[in-house]
């Protein structure tokens, strides 16, 4: 059997430098969700665990497809170590899953541009190449200086840490220094338990692109990350080279349309009568749009987490297949694509809330309705001008089939 490799993302709620830092959006996606997304896409990662003491972070992590472990208060303070959080999360995961972890990863969501290749690199160093521990590093060519300690009683001021200030060798004549990026670490699980530290035994250095090295510690770091995101974020599956991110899809782009229900085909409100029956409002224009999409021979699906007779009744009315009461919408969508013979990059998925983000990561055309959660709009490739429940689906049908619809 392949080794069990669990990526742990420590993400506590308290942050002095940047309040609610782990929920700050870069490229329209919360930092914790960005880290989960890359971990889930890594080839060697079996599961992703977010260790947190914060309800908002827990919700965003679950929406991105992670397992959440609630971190106890005694290891959630400013002085708590990342190692303590990883050990606790690993114990909790093994107890819940009834399995033994072979290798554990520490992935920091405050490194917004960590890539799945980095994560696979440190994991492979341990599970495939026999290292005891591994970390991401980047080439570093700078001269490091430090202020002289007051007790040194020197008048020389600063001194060189990695060089003699009286001699300035050329870069090519100096040993290659490597900077610890702080993004990803991997450890043999048994060795990590014994040592209690992320570095033990043979430690492998996994080189990464220095252009992507950035740790968010203060508001200036966050501003830089947001400015760099359009340049460094990888294009989504199915994106055409050089294509504009604001281009709307046309029918030649897609083979299937998958629709969320609540908040997408409704305005996200629910009326409940005295007998507990739920009533929602839908838009007749959406029905016309869906009929036109069906006539154009596009494959259609309604995918909802709610197990609700209203969803099933609306699907019957529209003559659209429905999967509802689904905990992991991304897994259901992936299986549906396989069964239908549809490439995910040829799917247009319409959603409105954070539980749609894992599906957004799977498809070529993630679309948010107006009024969707800020994070969802930021992660979408296109956003409707019309809110959910007010004709947003008909608007999308008009994108695909022409304005006369």
From TrEMBL:
Its EC number is 2.7.7.43. Pathway: Amino-sugar metabolism; N-acetylneuraminate metabolism. Its cofactor is Mg(2+). It comes from the Bacteria. Keywords: Hydrolase, Magnesium, Metal-binding, Nucleotidyltransferase, Transferase. Pfam families: CTP_transf_3 (PF02348), Hydrolase_3 (PF08282). Homotetramer. Belongs to the CMP-NeuNAc synthase family. This is N-acylneuraminate cytidylyltransferase.
């Amino acid at each position: 059997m392949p080794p069990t490799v669990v990526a742990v993302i420590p993400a506590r709620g308290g942050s002095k430098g940047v309040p609610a830092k782990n929920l700050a959006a870069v490229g329209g996606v919360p930092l914790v969700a960005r880290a989960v997304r890359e971990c889930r896409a890594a080839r060697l990662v079996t599961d992703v665990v977010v260790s947190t003491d914060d309800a908002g972070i827990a919700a965003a992590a679950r929406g991105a497809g992670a397992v959440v472990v609630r971190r106890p208060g005694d290891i959630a303070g400013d002085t708590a170590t990342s190692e303590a959080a990883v050990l606790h999360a690993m114990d909790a995961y093994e107890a819940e899953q009834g399995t033994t972890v072979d290798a554990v990863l520490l992935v920091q969501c405050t490194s917004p541009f960590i890539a799945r290749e980095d994560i696979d690199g440190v994991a492979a160093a341990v599970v495939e190449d026999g290292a005891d521990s591994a970390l991401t590093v980047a080439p570093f060519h700078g001269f490091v200086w430090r202020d002289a300690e007051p007790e040194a009683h020197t008048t020389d001021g600063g001194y060189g840490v990695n060089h003699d200030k009286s001699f300035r060798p050329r870069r090519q004549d100096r040993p290659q220094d490597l900077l610890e990026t702080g993004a990803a670490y991997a450890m043999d699980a048994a060795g990590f338990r014994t040592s209690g530290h992320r570095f033990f035994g043979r430690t492998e250095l996994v080189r990464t692109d220095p252009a992507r090295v950035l740790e968010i510690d203060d508001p200036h770091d966050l501003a830089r990350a947001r400015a760099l995101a359009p340049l460094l974020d990888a294009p989504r599956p199915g994106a055409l080279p050089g294509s504009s991110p604001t281009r709307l899809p046309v029918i030649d782009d897609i083979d299937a349309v998958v629709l969320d229900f609540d908040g997408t085909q409704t305005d996200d409100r629910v009326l409940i009568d005295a007998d507990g029956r739920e009533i929602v409002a839908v838009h007749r224009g959406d029905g016309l749009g869906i009929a036109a999409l069906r006539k154009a021979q596009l494959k259609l699906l309604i995918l909802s987490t709610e197990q609700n007779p209203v969803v099933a009744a609306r699907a019957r009315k529209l003559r659209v297949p429905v999967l509802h009461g689904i905990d992991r919408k991304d897994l259901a969508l992936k299986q549906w694509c396989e069964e239908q013979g549809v490439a995910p990059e040829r799917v247009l998925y319409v959603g409105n809330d954070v539980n749609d983000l894992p599906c957004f990561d799977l498809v070529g055309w993630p679309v948010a309705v107006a009024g969707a959660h800020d994070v969802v709009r930021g992660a979408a490739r296109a956003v409707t001008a019309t809110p959910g429940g007010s004709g947003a689906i008909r608007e999308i049908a008009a994108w695909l089939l022409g304005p006369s619809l």
